[in-house]
Amino acid sequence: MDDGAELVQLLTPEGERVDHPVYSVDLTDAEYRSLYRDLVMSRRVDVEATALQRQGELGIWASLLGQEAAQVGAARAMLPQDFAFPTYREHAVAWCRNVDPLRLLALFRGVNLGGWDPNEHNFNLYTIVIGSQTLHATGYAMGMQRDGADAATLAFFGDGASSQGDVNEAFVWAAVFNPPIVFFCQNNQWAISEPLERQSKQPLYKRALGFGFPGVRVDGNDVLACLAVTKAALENAREGNGPTLIEAFTYRMGAHTTSDDPTRYRLSSELEAWKLKDPIERVRSFLFKNQLADAAFFEQLEAEADELATTIRDGVHEMVDPDPLSLFDTVYAELTPLLTEQRDTFERYLAGFAGERA
Amino acid sequence: MPPITLAKAINQGLRKAMEADEKVLIMGEDVGKLGGVFRVTDGLQKDFGEDRVIDTPLAESGIIGTAIGLALRGYRPVCEIQFDGFVYPAFDQIVSQLAKMHNRSAGSVAMPVTIRIPFGGGIGAVEHHSESPEAYFCHTAGLKVVACSNPVDAYFMIQQAITSPDPVIFFEPKRRYWDKAELDTTATPLPLESAKVLRTGTDATLISYGPTVPVCLAAAAAAESEGRSLEVIDLRSLSPLDLPPLLASAEKTGRVVVVHEAPSECSLSSEIAARITEKAFFSLQAPVLRVTGFDTPYPPSRLEEDYLPDLDRVLDAVDRSMAY
Hints:
The structure holds 2 protein chains of 2 kinds.
Chain A: H1 29-54, H2 68-76, E1 83-85, H3 91-96, H4 101-109, H5 118-121, H6 132-147, E2 153-158, H7 165-177, E3 181-187, E4 190-191, E5 194-195, H8 207-211, E6 215-219, H9 223-238, E7 244-249, H10 268-275, H11 281-289, H12 295-318, H13 337-351
Parallel strand pairs in A: 1-2, 2-3, 3-7, 6-7
Antiparallel strand pairs in A: 4-5
Chain B: E1 4-5, H1 6-20, E2 24-28, H2 44-48, E3 53-55, H3 60-72, E4 76-80, H4 91-98, H5 101-104, E5 114-119, H6 134-138, E6 144-147, H7 151-163, E7 168-173, E8 180-181, E9 196-199, E10 204-208, H8 213-225, E11 230-234, E12 237-239, H9 243-253, E13 256-263, H10 268-280, E14 289-293, H11 304-307, H12 311-322
Parallel strand pairs in B: 2-3, 2-4, 4-5, 5-7, 6-7, 10-11, 10-13, 13-14
Antiparallel strand pairs in B: 1-8, 6-12, 9-11
Helix pairs in contact in B: 1-7, 3-4, 8-12, 9-10
């Protein structure tokens, strides 16, 4: 059983700042508060989305509960010109990249398949097939390398994905071509029902050594450590020193998705133990203890989160189903003659129900 | 103008594309110093450098997956899959990612990736080196699938595939790599998605693509000596299909035989038979017949002459069509 030893940690679960010989952060009071805000707001997106799924407004939702610090820390280490390649659970990364949460919810409601422009926020579309995006991130980084860009990619994946061929191929590519990429593995201990032991005999970060680049394990529930470690790795990549694998040791506090039932495969005591390491509570304690935020700040943030929740609820309720004929729109750059014919036939067919479909 | 081989014609087309657009990259196994196992990329790395002609690790999913990332960054990768039977490890990246990215992004992302695949049998190879996997890709929305049958088309089609905003699977008939033709590089090519009538005729229509096009042309020549006039159409584009010339021919001759190396079940010939039946039913004098590889695994090479459609099997099918 992997107990998560050798973690880089800068903030204990009790909210105490600790030093690390290699990694550190030097933030202003406002920056500490800003990180806390990211954590709170992204959790609120998640809570609201989960509720909307239960109300039948979303088809499914993949909760990030418990992984806020890993994602916020990683995303806030990025520069605007860096590019993130998410799985389907990186809602807090999306938040930090200024992607409207409603764009995410639209996907899970089923009104589109992604629907945002990856180049608008340097945040790729969600990738649902496990691990595929690590190769895209590697190729994109090879492009940055050829462009001579001062930028890097950040490839997100999970412990389950670490078994995929694509992830291992991405490691090979990254090692031999040395493009500016950082692999950010959120080891949340569970791949749906399969525990980490089913994916790996040894800690995941150690795999990097076999491929020929450094691996580091960070407390994934410590936003400061995640920020420090990812920042260092991205800088290293931008400077042309090659890839790093970061294993953020964290925990999926919720179900895999709203369709999952974790009581069938894991003990509630495990969850209770991880609740004590909650990624948000420790920052709250830290802010309090060090008088970096006052009661007014927390009240204000609470109000802001409530407002976000309202916006999300209203936005989802207002989402209309797409026009049936739109399904032909972007299959190819231009509609082919055969698709045009199929579309026209379908349009005539639909017209036969005119009046009935009100 | 000396005749040029099909392999060399693709080589020259690639060179032209790389000169025209510095974002064009070549990626694949052994494409650099060696110039590819069929020498299709011969000399390109020497002239364009290792950053543009990339010898990749031996992992096909990696080739396509990284090409997708490069395309997202604004590059136009041309990937070589060394042999038809080696494309399957990349199937997921092609079908689930490459083909769908434009649609998934609601049109905001283009995926101008070309995947070159030498395909088909007839070279006495070992297993997995003689397959015809084109139908798998035609079945996938978002991909364009083309096959060249001669050096002239090869030269122009590869350039058109590379400039296409859509991902293109580019099948090269490996047993025709050494076929020669005169190439006028100043000619104006047909659009990539167009079929081409190679020989006009009135009694029956042969429809084919890739390596069996020359078989059909030879069959038509042989039939002529027996007083039978066969029309031969080269599909060139397998997806999307260019139906109008096929229908026009079917309406003229009333008899159609489709020829390809791939097995018949759920194949291009299935699709063409269905389309012609839907659109030209009252013009047909006989059902659309098919001459294809058998619905078996590709055989050991000592049996491939039995497996592959040849002139006699094509003419036998024409006879059966005429007998209706």
